[in-house]
From TrEMBL:
Signal peptide: none annotated. The chain crosses the membrane at residues 6-32, 44-64, 84-100, 109-127. One of its GO terms (biological process) is lipoprotein biosynthetic process. GO terms for cellular component: cell envelope; plasma membrane. GO terms for molecular function: disulfide oxidoreductase activity; phosphatidylglycerol-prolipoprotein diacylglyceryl transferase activity. It comes from Aliidiomarina halalkaliphila. It is found in: Cell envelope. Residues 131-269 form the Thioredoxin domain. Keywords: Cytochrome c-type biogenesis, Membrane, Redox-active center, Transmembrane, Transmembrane helix. This is TlpA family protein disulfide reductase.
Amino acid sequence: MMSVTFGPFAFATVHLIFFIALVVAFGLAWILGRKYKVNATDSVFRILAVGLLFARISFVIRYFSDYASSPWQILNVRDGGFDLWAGVIAGVALAGYEIFKQRALFKPVAVSCLVAALAWTSMHGFYNHKYGNELFIPEVRVSTLDDRPVFLHRAFRGQPVVMNLWATWCPPCVREMPLLEDAQTRYPDVAIVTVNQGEDAQLVREFMLAQGLDITHTLLDPNSQLGTHIQSFALPTTLFFDANGMLIDTHVGEFSAARLNQAIRSIRRSSPVDASESLQDGE
């Protein structure tokens, strides 16, 4: 399951896993802090905050050129742009400093952070094994705007694929469309595929015309079979497949240009050498 809905709200499963790990960290810090009579929750909060901050800063620095046209997106942490190892290094460094200042923090802080990290790693690993690494381009039949059938698992063999599930009534979906159109130009060997969920051809044609958009692979899924197949009922949802058809990355919710380019470069690296050597845009 790639997303979970609570009433009108939808959350990516990976985000829920992260929040569960946070609850574990703070819960253990509070329990062990009481046991050892130290304020471990504040220390754990600072460690996590600094880790996330440095993970974000590292990502922004690496993809700074992608934020040039919309710098406010730097603050949009919902796009998922974080460098894990930069955050881990910063968090460990601050943990060492906190423990050096107050030795009594060693057990509460170390146990809380380690158990939370293990909880996140195990849940994330199970999720990737069950819903990620074993998922290939789905065997779902959709259609073009002129009602020609398209079998997704056959149509884009041998090339990396970005597959975006969207609808015209979804504001984040609409905001993403120009980024997908731009990616179509920047990465000509990558199939940029938009699969409309639950709407008819006339409505989608009128929308594309009104928005001035020209995305070659604009497909229709009137019964939302694709969303059901991948178990994501939140829009937009974007899937990133390598040239072998294997799912490499997913993104639930609106992405930034930097996050989109990061994921595309990832599927290009995972694709055969002869496919990646002909690319225009720099790594």
